Amino acid sequence: MEKRLGRGLGSLLGGASSMAQPESGAELPLDQIRPNPYQPRKVFDSSSIEELRDSIKTHGVLQPICVRGGNGRFEIISGERRWRASRLAGLASIPAVVRPDVPDGEMLELALVENIQRQDLDPIEKASGYRELMERLGLTQEQVAGRVGVKRATVANHLRLLELPARAQEAISAGLISMGHARALAGLQDQKAVMRFLARTARDDLSVRRLEHLVREKNRALGGVREKIVVPAAPWLQEMEHRIRLHLGTRVTIQNGEGYRGQIVLQYHDRPELDRLCEVLAPKDQLR
User: What is the second-level CATH architecture of the domain 3-113?
Assistant: First the structure.
């Protein structure tokens, strides 16, 4: 974990506020607290929350949550599971540390890091969190990796999952396929093929190695260029692809050859999508 963020998170979770606000261990009414608006976790496991509720009923809340705000209105920085479980336990208040000086830019970062450190997000939630860090804070993949203490390739592999069809992403979130299966599916360029391979993986209980083999065969059948696309691009190419994808809102592949000769491939799926891309790339009012 990056040292700067590690110290920052530690102080937020355990330090006392230096301003005229409730200090560590002070009780805040639960109805004056709302969740972190930048919370990367979209689904909270009900059985896990219930187990925490039972523990709180027996032992109380052992570690204060951390919030920002004041004057009776607070937002959770870290500790949303404790807050949810305390409500289920019927508590009226919860111990909290108040940090009124935490800016919006750090809320997402702190929430994401806390989840990764304490309870894993599913791969799609992680990918969405990484993307939000990049978009909201203007970070590169390398910088995101440094913030959350993972390798840059891990960030890149997760971001690729967000290019899969919604149903495939739902299968990943539900744990129906592994991260290895998901990475193999992300190597397919044909969205319809992704769904067919997803169904076959579930039906035939394909191993990751078997699915990777089938993906290679499918890409080879589509032509040599698509076979090359399966090989991960250089980090600087992936970064450039991501920047163009964010700007245009569609999947993009940069095929770079010797002497920096190649092509940029943009994908569209219907006429309205093609018209939208043309308008972004070459607005009519600029062609007159």
Answer: Alpha-Beta Complex (3.90)
